Amino acid sequence: MNALAAQAAALNRLLDKAAGLLQPLLLLLIRLWIFNVFFKSGLTKLDDWDTTVQLFTDEYHVPLLPPALAALMGTFGETVLSSLLALGLAGRFAAAGLFVVNAVAVISYPDLTDVTRQFHYYWAILIAVLFCAGPGQLSLSGLWRALHAPRQG
């Protein structure tokens, strides 16, 4: 049984090392995926601002905010926060903001289909991973930490 336990421990160390090497790449891919989704949505809103404000007036019922302000805040969140997230700059702040933008979208648009709602849940999970793990080493924040880390020696 000792030999089996030693092999299991060795395999576990190998998997831990592989996960440590892959985590920065996975976090980068998640950041870029979320950026793609939200930034494109923001660009669509910017493409025809009058229609965007009309949609926020007639279709999206954002609680507590006037439609024009809700449109501005949503578009800002989708473009600026997703860009920060893609760069890995203020990553947790950007993730928290996009989580709110995503939640407000689900709450304020009652005509979401079940499939569309599932996409929003999926994005929320990915954003929550980024909030919990941070942007990772392959980010501007990671570069900043690497450049300003105390030197050993």
Number of structural units classed as domains? 1
- Name the poorly predicted regions: none
User: Total number of helical segments?
Assistant: 6
Q: Radius of gyration from the CA trace?
A: 20 Å
Average pLDDT figure? 95
Give the H and E element order: HHHHHH
Residue fraction in strands: under 5%
Count the E strands: 0
Global morphology: elongated
Distance between the termini: 42 Å
Biggest beta-sheet profile: none
Share of helix among residues?
Answer: over 70%
**Secondary-structure content class:** mainly alpha
How would you summarize this macromolecular structure in one to three sentences?
The chain is an all-alpha fold.
Please give a structural write-up:
This protein is mostly helical. The longest helix is centred in the first third of the chain and has 46 residues, at 2-47. It is 80% helix and 0% strand. It has helices spanning 2-47, 49-58, 67-87, 91-108, 114-133, 140-147. It has one domain (25-135). 24% of the residues are buried. The chain is elongated, with a radius of gyration of 20 Å. Helix 4 runs antiparallel to helix 5 (114-133). The model has no long low-confidence stretch (mean pLDDT 95).
